[in-house]
Amino acid sequence: MQRAPVTVEEQLLQKAIKEECTWENLPKRIQAILSSKEEWHRRIIESCIKKRIQWNSCFARKVCKESEYYEEMMRYLRKNLALFPYHLAEYICRVMRLSPFRYYCDMIFEVMRNACN
Predict the structure, then answer these.
(1) Which residues form the FAM91 N-terminal domain (predicted)?
(2) Sign of torsion over alpha carbons 50, 51, 53, 59
(3) Who wins on pLDDT, 6 or 43?
(4) pLDDT tens digit string along 24-37?
(5) Collapsing DSSP states into helix, strand and coil, what is residue 22?
(6) Nearest partner of 41 among 25, 27, 58, 62, judged by Cα
(7) Residue 69 binned pLDDT confidence (cut-offs 50, 70, 90)
């Protein structure tokens, strides 16, 4: 479940991401919050991943490669023990060669390994 942005700055960041603002077009107030253009790109990718948006229909397509985006998304989903993103299965299964079964096996392995430590 998505949590609502708490601060005004977070709300401004979300609005800028939704409007697909480039670093150069960001208001100075938002640029002051972020340390660099790379930080802005990281926030864009993070926001799209949390919403589980397909790469070709999100703002992240303008700041990172498709493979990097989906690899980062799968790391995020595994870390948070999230369900397999079936709406993205065409890319994940075909290109990344990761089936839902393999995804859940890897997840269970990680949980069991962490439980032993």
Answers:
(1) 17-114
(2) negative
(3) 43
(4) 988 888 888 898 99
(5) coil
(6) 62
(7) very high
